[in-house]
Design a protein that fits this description.
The chain is mainly alpha-helical and about 210 residues long. The chain is about 30% helix and about 5% strand. The chain is globular, with a radius of gyration of 21 Å. Helix 3 crosses helix 7. It has 7 helices and 2 strands, in the order ααββααααα.
Amino acid sequence: GCTLAIDATPEQLRAQTPDFEPRPQLADRAWPIGDVVSETPLAGIDSNALAAALDYGFAEPDPDKPILTRAILVVHGDQLVAERYAEGIDANTRLPGWSMTKSVNATLIGILVGQGELDLHAPAPIPAWQGEEDPRAGITLDQLMRMSSGLSFKEVYGPLTDATAMLFESPSAAEFAMTSPLDSPPDTVWSYSSGTSNLLAWIVRQRVEARAG
């Protein structure tokens, strides 16, 4: 793996210990909670078509423009029906999810709303926005979810842009996004924003860690 050496030397980074507990061993529980994958094929699955799809996903038709697929998993009927990995990758390899993680964010937020831990239409629980007369104080969780918060954030990947500064120059992507000023009134402009997604992930983490004590 790798990390960013921001406000720390490589030696200091190597001396750090992870701030999370390793995943418990779940070898005896069924996927997706655990690691047991059913060996019984689901009815109605065309195994030849599935294999062809995996072949297509890993094909490299142009050596000058490699695709470099890392992994493909196919889920149907709540069952993992196919998986394939590139050389050096397996089911335990950590891979960046990039914008696929936005769907995970939405799922986790939905679970916490269903459990009464979060209110979708209440102001987002971000203490940095709760100062007196802060125009961001009224931004709701719903508006963050729909990327209509009005926060200024340019989803452009190049030198001196919000996205690259957040990813490569800040020790905390969420805290970088928290500093974004209000660019327009909430619910008046839609703007794709990975900064917003990092705020949502931060909210989930804060709420879950608080519940765990």
